[in-house]
Amino acid sequence: MAAAATQPTVYLVGGAVRDHLMGAGGGDRDWVVVGATPADMAALGFTPVGADFPVFLHPLTQEEYALARTERKTAKGYHGFSFYAAPDVTLTQDLARRDLTINAMAVPHPASLTTIARTADRTWRPDFTQLIDPFNGERDIEKKQLRHVSGAFAEDPVRILRLARFHARWPDYSVADETMALMQQMVADGEADALVAERVWQELAKGLMGQQPSQMFITLRACGALAQLLPELNALWGVPQRADYHPEVDTGIHAMMVIDKSAQLQADLGTRFASLCHDFGKGTTPTEVLPRHTGHEMRSVHLLNEVCDRWRVPKAMRELAEVVAREHGHIHRCQDLSAEAALRLIERCDAFRRPERFQQILLACECDARGRLGLEDVPYVQAERLGAIFQTAHAVATDAVAHQARQAPQFATGKGEWIATQIHAARLAAIAPLFN
Questions:
Q1: In-domain check, residue 388
Q2: Which of 29, 125, 273, 387 is most deeply packed, by most CB within 10 A?
Q3: What is the pLDDT of residues 84-118, one digit of tens each?
Q4: What stretch of H or E contains 83?
Q5: What distance, in Å, lies between the first and last C-alpha atoms of the chain?
Q6: Kind of pairing, strands 69-73 and 64-67?
Q7: What whole-number distance in Å separates Cα of residue 377 and Cα of residue 123?
């Protein structure tokens, strides 16, 4: 008599297991199915995500279920892999292809694949007494260490970025010495050169939204990848600034303090990106004029645009970063401006059309001002000052001003320009008492 076929087994894997052991909340659940074929999955109603990738969507919950698989490197870069997914691939083999030990753990689901396919039940709670941990991920959580699973880590350059952004998420962790050495070798071998723009921006964005974003860039710098990915940022270390404005002196240190302040102030991604880029121009200041950085603002605009082109940064974030880079010096000095100069500054920030973005600009400038040694807790009064000026100017009834402007003889020749001039004059008159 032939032996009965082994039934597929389903495992909860990856981040959901890791986060539970770290004491963190839920999040997305990832599943691995061992002992099944694509035909088995299709027969149970699972829908394939793509033609060449063994991942399927649950017919009811739309959660992802991946067949256990192994990978083989076929070329440089993120896309240079071939996959082998078959019933004979074991769970340990599947976990072995993962990046970090803390992401290579699993817990078995007690129900059969057939039962799972027929229910939308999300209430199942994993039994962590059945934890499967072939690469000592739980031990590394206890040690607070980021360590690669195997030499296969070196086959995917995106893993350098993933580890770095995990470091931003858990800044109290350390990178294992052997993992750092492996990443340095990957960079030396040119693997970082093969990264594609979409994945770079995706990982950079996640790292910027981490608890301590500076850890991402410090880690990338330590392995040499920052010089490849963001040479504009890498160039800031070792560049001095005037100590009376920047007690931390080193521009690279300042850049890290600024983005960490943006995280402490719970800034959105666009504001954090603008905070990161605002001083890029200081890396190109001629050495003979240091520690002054006259004209660095427009150099920063040019360099951040190169970064945005390289990594396909979303347009809205590029535009926000441009304004912050160009105007942050003027905003810092707004208390010394005349009413006319202050209004022109607000207009250059396009605040009347985009008041929400103006708040982002002011917050990025606050991060810059407070991202300095010993000045972390100093109130940024400039934001309150410009905010009050803006609110007063914004309260002007521009429709009435425009209507009156259309009655004047100058409207016949100037039209839109004439109306804009009159609105500007009305706003200037409104804010004038704030400068007395």
A1: no
A2: 273
A3: 888 999 999 999 999 999 999 999 999 999 999 99
A4: strand 81-85
A5: 100
A6: unpaired
A7: 45
